[in-house]
Amino acid sequence: MTEAGELPPAPEAAREVFGERFPEAVRYAELLADAGVRRGLIGPREVPRLWERHLLNCAVLSEAVADDVTVCDVGSGAGLPGIPLALVRDDLHITLLEPLLRRTTFLQEVVELLGLDHVTVVRGRAEEVLGTLQPVHVVTARAVAPLDRLAGWGVPLLRPYGEMLALKGDTAEEELKNARAALSKLGVVKTSVLQVGEGVVEPLSTVVRAEVGESPGGVRFAAKRAKAARVSRSRRRR
Ligand SMILES: C[S@@+](CC[C@H](N)C(=O)[O-])C[C@H]1O[C@@H](n2cnc3c(N)ncnc32)[C@H](O)[C@@H]1O
């Protein structure tokens, strides 16, 4: 294994961004740098850039999230962007959705250690928890899948008029172009690319926003698919 680099002291911007929750943000950075690396949840080479590239880059997503809404962070991994978002926003109700047990165990520990009462950890794949999770106002995701595939997993979890916020890098415009047809099939009525984190992160964080209308088509398609799968399973059993 590559030797883990040193966790640098928190940058000044982190104090401002995390405010009262700054001590918890430091604790989270330490947990990622220690248990996160030992348990293979984050690469050792990421440690020196944990603050800028991970915690702050994710926390600034808050600029795009409305007040008092429900959020599902799909493919949360070691808690990104869900945990930094929870640290800066007590008003949100956040579900961290992650299929791998090793990762949900870590997430549950982090949530308890940091006292994040507004965060729930759910183990599962987005396409499998559909129908068991309450539809949410906002789906967030970072580094989970290309936009068209991610949309197929994330958009069906949305309530009417909800939105998916995907943290993407330089590929945002390109991915959006390639995903247009898939997004429209899923009931996405408006898309945009925004930059967040002015004065905090350099380069700025790029976010693809995909908004659904009154009746997210994805929900209907996914429900139809789930029903077809149930029918075919019961036919096979007969
Ligand atoms: C590369 S990691 C990114 C983790 C985190 N979002 C980050 O930015 O560091 C992708 C994560 O997506 C999860 N994942 C993959 N397919 C998924 C699905 N269908 N539903 C939910 N999560 C999924 C994986 O288990 C993994 O933890």
From TrEMBL:
It comes from the Bacteria. Pfam families: GidB. InterPro entries: rRNA_ssu_MeTfrase_G, SAM-dependent_MTases_sf. Keywords: Cytoplasm, Methyltransferase, rRNA processing, S-adenosyl-L-methionine, Transferase. It is found in: Cytoplasm. Its EC number is 2.1.1.-. Specifically methylates the N7 position of a guanine in 16S rRNA. Belongs to the methyltransferase superfamily. RNA methyltransferase RsmG family. This is Ribosomal RNA small subunit methyltransferase G. It comes from Streptomyces varsoviensis.
